[in-house]
Amino acid sequence: MVLLELLPFFDSQIQNAAEEPRVLCIIQDTTSAKTVNERLTLNLPASTTLSKLHEDVAHKAGYVNDTFDLTWAPLEHNSEMSLSDSGFEPGKKNFLQLTDKDGEQPRVVSVTDSSGLDDSSQERFIGPLQRDGSACGSGDYSSPSYSYSSILSKSDTGYVGLVNQAMTCYLNSLLQTLYMTPEFRNALYNWEFEESEEDPVTSIPYQLQRLFVLLQTSKKRAIETTDVTRSFGWDSSEAWQQHDVQELCRVMFDALEQKWKQTEQADLINQLYQGKLKDYVRCLECGYESWRIDTYLDIPLVIRPFGASQAYGSVEEALQAFIQPETLDGPNQYFCERCKKKCDARKGLRFLHLPYLLTLQLKRFDFDYTTMHRIKLNDRMVFPEELDMSPFIDVEDEKSPQTESCTDSGAENEGSCHSDQMSNDFSTDDCVDEGICLDSTSSTERALKPKSLLTFELFSVMVHSGSAAGGHYYAYIKSFSDGQWYSFNDQHVSKITQDDIRKTYGGSSGSRGYYSSAFASSTNAYMLIYRLKDLSRNTKFLAVEDFPEHIKSLVQKEKESEEQEKRQREIERNTCKIKLFCMHPVKMMVESKLEVHKDRTLREATEMAYKLMELEGAVSLDCCRLVKYDEFHEYLERSYEGEEDTPMGLLLGGVKSSYMFDLLLETRRPEQVFQPYKPGEVMVKVFIVDLKTETITPPVSVRAYLNQTVTEFKQLIAQATGLSAETMRVVLERCYNDLRLLYVPNKTLKAEGFFRSNKVFVESSELADHQVVFTDSLLWKLLDRHGNTIRLFVLLPEQSPGALTNRTVCQKNLSLQQQGSSTSDSQKSPDTSDFEHIESPTQEAHSNSSLCVAADNRGLENRIRATPGSSGGASSDTENPFVCEERSDSEVNNDRSTSSVDSDILSSSHSSDTLCNADSGPIQLANGLDSHSITSSRRSKAHEGKKETWDTAEEDSGTDSEYDDNGKSKAEAQYLYFRAEPFSQDEASWETQKCLVVHVDKRITLAAFKQKLEPYVGVVSSQFKVFRVYANNQEFESVRLNETLSSFSDDNKITIRLGRALKKGEYRVKVYQLMVNEPEPCKFLVDTVFAKGMTVRQSKEELLPQLKEQCKLDLSVDRYFRLRKKTWKNPGTVFLDYHIYEEDISISSNWEVFLEVLNDPEKMKSMSQLAVLTRRWSPATMKLGPFQEVILESSSVDELKEKLSEVSEVPLENVEFAKGRGTFPCDISVLEIHQDLDWNPKVSTLNVWPLYICDDGAVVFYRDSREEPLELSEDERNELMKKESSRLLKTGHRVSYSPRKEKALKIYLDGGPVRDPGQD
Predict the structure, then answer these.
(1) Active-site annotation holds for 472
(2) What CA–CA distance (Å, rounded) separates 804 from 838?
(3) Cβ neighbours of 1021 (radius 10 Å)
(4) 472, 786, 846, 999: which one is catalytic?
(5) Per-residue model confidence as pLDDT tens digits over 1068-1101
(6) Which pTM does this prediction carry?
(7) Is 169 a catalytic residue?
(8) What are the CB-based long-range contacts (under 8 Å, 24+) for 302-305?
């Protein structure tokens, strides 16, 4: 009765628990107890207390409670506050860190510690409820699905894992198997390395010895294998190549035998792994037997016989099939030496000697000749834990009175077994191996031999999970010490059960595997290793105390190295790493990284930064200090007065992987005093503008508060600069090119838009300019030009016509002074060139009416001065010089300094009147507005109503013209600031490079900019082209003449090339020759110009002289050739002579066309016709014919077949066709074309799926359905595959039957491969 009453209570409790929100806690274990950071996941009810959270983390991590800290927010260890009350968010990820407590690593739970826990705490399930409602898992292993939630640490398993370098899981599996083989490990330990004879880095046995010592003695969870792979001669690229574990085993054993020559271990591999078998042929008439002996290191077992649909069910069945003889009869009869005729015979294999360690390779990888792809056989194959080999010794078949002995053990085996090429001296009476020799005893003795002598026990299963294209290897290995099976999966080692081993049999009943989503049911055993059960010969592992002396020394050496690594890791864990900046007196702004221990004081860190920035001799240490700095905003956040002895860890907020701020090593002059920087202040760079001299001084730094008013801010500036606050005008540059006059006295700086780092311009004078509207004032114009002037580097042509000294140059003058220079008038540079001595008749007039101001916007503010009637000094700034390389005619975009289409433009001379034609009126902007119509929001106003365009076709599909309908230059009426001067470090350099540094207002149009460059190029702007230089010296022509230079920025590079610039309606076109039946079907010919309204025939006539002169291609309009559209590599629409560009044919800038020479008259007469390129495939000869073009009147499939029947003489009903894939010429391997293409699609028209043939140039393959494919032998197929692979790789097409280029597995005994110097 009481139980019945309690049932509703329990039901409500369960329901409440199910409905309660849960908190997902992800804990990163960063304690010193773990060498690799681990992640723990807990899914707890929101009502869980913090103290219970600590208990659960301790239980999950295996630590003693109260010996570690949890950091998320400050968490009290014994607090009874729930997770939800502490700020944890249900339904979201809550990240915590598990750290050392008081500098001590947490204590790991031992057996005694865990025994003190009550049963409820040990069995408590941490995480979401299981679907079956049970609270506990079924075991301590989570099966090969590998969630790793139950993987044990080394303290539980006692074993160390191996780190996967990238794709070295196959290597890790083999190394762990060798390590867990007592006979191999002990023999390796007994070998002693002689450092005087070999480099330890390249010694494979020594590096294996080191690895095994670390696996046995290291305290780490997993160790690296890079030293072992380095001894193989592998570089880092090998880590990304996955190989076959059986292949690696053979190659490694081969390398070890080579290294162990003339040592006690010289025959170790043969003693442990080598067996012998007899390959025999017995005559069924006379009983005569011919045989030979082969050696083997492993036995390859077929999973599924060739051509069969049913696989072998067990290893025993596959072994029986391996030795099952076949009968040679009929055409395969054997010529018997005794009978002297062909007789029926029996051919087979017989085991003579079984190795001590028996290796079985399950041949799961095969080749499918139907699909021409490698495949993996995932069929189920059972293998026993104990394998009795006695049934595979056929005693009755041994009775042969007359035999012919052949003891060529090194000869290649004609059967399926691998022969060992290392054992050519192995004889039939050699019975010194540790295996079982069966040929030295009589048949009766062998029959009476106890079964136990032929019993092998399984101890290693190498598992492959994945497909033939790739996957993952890991190993299940039984320890001979305790008989327990373990999973060695790279760095993870865990216990497993017999159920897990059975899941590797394969088939549909097996596990879904490591890649459960990508490779379903693909996890199965690949290699099995058995050891002979013989108590007299089975050995145990050497204990540490029994190690040879050289191994004890090695253990001590590795222990010291590991301790040193641990100490270094501890130092790294406590080291603060933060970006450090310094305004170096010589090197300007320098960036580095400061690494300082968290316990070092600020004073010590300053000294370290002082040495790091190499300030000795430039500034004394007393004149330096570290301040908190924001590089992005160039903001000094705070200084640390009085905290010189404070530890850096406390100042920086602890050791973190990254910081949200930086440090600046600030310097001062000896007579200066450091200004304190308080948190909450903002930094303001103040530039003083002098309207009388029209100069802007270098900035003065002022710190202010956001709650200060404009009036208070003016008084602060007045104190710093000495200007009058009453007449002061302050202009804030809130963002690029956005000026704001601060005129409201009581408005705060925060309301005005001040932020961490700010830039203001101040002016204090009593000029009438104060009374003018700000946007019309001289101050605004000065700042406007200051913000819009950019610096460009211009490379002139190699040979400009005419002498520069004989031309008149319109040049405006600008003086640039760097920060820190005097405010007095600069003197003319002694390095001035002839440019600065050229006088202009209109120069003085322009100088009086125009203010010539430019700025260098690269971070240093320059003083701007205009001196009417004088020449500007040469720029002294040589930062970011324009590298003027000599370029060949065929380099960038196939442009030439003087192209053929522009060969007639250089004959005319140009007067100074043409070159110098600047308007003295108001400055005309690109959009037609003058400077007086611009408001303070200049950027938005200047571009109002202006559409952004790129260097592609415009709406009228034409290129902008520099000239109006009357032939007058449009740029003549536009003027914005422009100034050019030679750029070089010396006169000799300028003479060879011919570079200009140009300061120009970026609101100028390209047309006006080109006109300004005329005096320096030597021709009018319509006769040269402007190319913008991008990264990697890529050049693209700028042709949009009505667009401004707004997309340019400081220090951009420009190349000038002679040649006629495009006029309105003209397009630059690249012409390529199309040769459909050549190995290289596409060849560049020339650059030319097509115009709107031109017919195709006219463009051909324009093209012919260029082709003859440049390409030696002698054609005529009457000779058969055509132009057609080019889309990347594909030929497209055929252009007919009467077609008109921009009416019948759409055209765009940088257009490309094909020129195709025809053998016959043009058959295309109308745009309604369709030109298709066809190619015949002959399966009987495995060859492809040449391309033939057929012209269709419609898109009918029937018409296409009729045309194909006409050109090939194949009956219409036997014509089959398929559309080619990819880009022209749609190359495909002859081994794939017969089955990979979609032959004879069930459609009636060509313009529907799956054909979609709607335009000229489509490729169609066709064949005769009566032809049968040529039958190839395996050798012929392999040879053809190599030829096809080579052919397709040369043409740049993918070889689909080889999806991944495999690299041969090699181990280099001399330290590494010999690389070809010419190899990439």
Answers:
(1) yes
(2) 9
(3) 25
(4) 472
(5) 899 999 999 998 899 999 989 899 999 999 999 9
(6) 0.51
(7) yes
(8) 302/363, 302/416, 303/362, 303/363, 303/364, 303/366, 303/377, 303/379, 303/381, 304/366, 304/377, 304/379
